[in-house]
Each structure stands twice: as C-alpha cells, then as structure tokens.
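hey
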C-alpha cells in the first residue's frame, strides 16, 4: 500500500538529493517537498533535513510556522532527522553566539575544537552502532557514511545514542527515541549503506 513521505522544506537543506534518494528506495510511495503544515501533518512519514547555520534554520522554521507541527509529528509518526535536522532536535547550540533548539531531545551542540582537526569535518567516517535498531538493518557495524559539519552533539542522554563517530574525539552521530531516528551524516550521499538506511526508514514500523 502506497504511503506519503513528507520532506520538510524550509529552505535550509539539500532537499532535492534527499527526495531523489527516497524516490529510489520507495518508487511506489509519494515523496513530497513541502512547508505546508497540513500536508506534513497528514503524511505517513516525516524527513527533517537541514544544512547551513543553526540560527538561520531556527529563524526559517519560525517564519514558516513549522515548529509546532514538527514537535507534534515527532511524537506521532516515523520521523528521520538528517544533518542539521539532528542538531535542531537538541536544547542548545553554540553556533551563532548561542541558539536555542527544539528541545525534543535533551543535550547540547558544540563546535569541534580547532587543535589539529580540519573544520568543517568533511568526508567519510566509520559509524559505530551503539544500539540495535531497525534502521541499522543490513548495515554492518563501522560502515562508512559521508558527513559535512563543524558542530557536533556533545551531551546527549546515553539512552538515545544509536551511533558514534571518531573524528579526533568520539561524538554522537545517530540518536533513536521511540519513533524518532536522526543522523549527523548524509545518508543520501552515502551510497549503498545510506540508501539502505533510507529504505529501512521507509519500511520501519515505528
């Protein structure tokens, strides 16, 4: 039976590549880009991508009147956050002089220490699966995914951490809570394993 997958389109993310990847793994489903709260509310699954600065993203979400609908949908249906769509779920980020997040998950987002690390963190890194989860189905532990970011989740409730990556420091790159799953990396840019994760999301009985 066909389902509707809504990609939240608030002007801050590479949504076309996410859409194409989802259409590839779910050819019989309806994959739509939208900032319409009613359409998002009626969809069967929600994908929440994001790129750029967190302050600008929060401003865009407020301008599009999407904060309340995102918080509601996160409780009610399968919900996938990607890249900044992970960071926005937390309480606070150091970015832009300090930005409040959606506080869907408790924790803080901080900038990578300069030291010897190249910032932004860009490229392929292994992801250690720290809990069993349906979205890891058919993906081997320590598989490599593609990331581009300068900030990372530093403090998160240990119970929600689903994956971690080592980039000079060990940081949370995936979280899971009830019907919510979110990743710092870009599955739509991560070839076979990224497509597998998206396919797992499409078929996830959360």
């Amino acid at each position: 039976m066909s389902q509707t997958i809504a990609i939240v389109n608030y002007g801050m993310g590479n949504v076309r590549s996410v859409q194409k990847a989802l259409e590839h793994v779910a050819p019989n489903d309806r994959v739509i880009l939208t900032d319409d709260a009613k359409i998002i509310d009626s969809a069967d699954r929600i994908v929440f991508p994001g790129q750029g600065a967190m302050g600008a993203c929060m401003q865009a979400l407020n301008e599009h009147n999407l904060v309340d609908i995102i918080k509601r949908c996160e409780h009610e249906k399968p919900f996938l956050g990607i890249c900044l769509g992970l960071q926005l779920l937390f309480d606070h980020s150091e970015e832009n002089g300090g930005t409040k997040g959606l506080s869907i998950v408790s924790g803080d987002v901080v900038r990578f220490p300069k030291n010897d690390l190249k910032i932004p963190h860009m490229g392929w890194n292994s992801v250690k699966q720290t809990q069993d989860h349906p979205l890891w189905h058919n993906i081997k532990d320590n598989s490599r995914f593609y990331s581009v970011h300068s900030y990372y989740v530093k403090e998160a409730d240990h119970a929600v951490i689903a994956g971690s990556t080592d980039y000079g420091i060990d940081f949370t790159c995936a979280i899971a809570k009830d019907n919510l799953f979110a990743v710092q990396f870009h599955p739509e840019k991560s070839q076979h394993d990224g497509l597998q994760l998206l396919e797992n999301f499409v078929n996830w009985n959360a």
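The longest strand covers residues 121-129. The mean pLDDT is 94.
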